[in-house]
Amino acid sequence: MVRKLLVLAFIGTVAAALYAQAQSVKINGYLIDNACASAHVKDANFSDRVKKHSTSCALMPNCDGSGFAVYSDGKLYKLDKDGNKTAEDLLKDTDTKNGVMVTVEGTLDGDTIKVSKLTETKTAVE
Question: Which structural domain range is residue 98 located in?
């Protein structure tokens, strides 16, 4: 009986851990390249910097090649490979020059989002 309870507890723990690793999310925030984000994330004015980050900077070869992240509610979420490609395409097609706001949907694994959908939004993000 004890052995069965231990097995059930183990299965429950593994299931909870797997569920926590792949949590579905929908996040609204500002798009920034990882090169600029990592260089300035500890700056006191990082939140303001992200909101004014230029599209032209994000598309520069060194910045573009570093991948992208979304900054929302004081946290930086990196995008997966497919999300990076979608973000690059969005930045190339947008008319927004500074502070590209997006809604990203997908599954969260740590601080990385496996993107299923990424769209620009014109609604202010706080």
Answer: 24-120
The phi-psi region of residue 93 (left if phi > 0; otherwise alpha if psi is between -120 and 50; otherwise beta) is alpha
Q: Answer whether residue 6 shows pLDDT above 70.
A: no
| Whether 84 contacts 69, CB under 8 Å | no
CB contact set of 108 (below 8 Å; sequence gap of 6+): 22, 23, 24, 25, 77, 114
- Which residue bears the tokens 């809604």? 103
Is 108 inside a domain boundary?
A: yes
Residue 81 has φ and ψ, to the nearest 5°, of -55, -50
In a domain, 16, yes or no: no
The structural domain count of the chain equals 1
pLDDT tens digit sequence for 33-79: 999 999 998 889 999 999 999 999 999 998 989 999 999 999 999 99
pTM for this prediction? 0.78
Q: 106: which strand partners?
A: 25, 115
Q: φ, ψ for residue 75 (rounded to 5)?
A: -130, 145
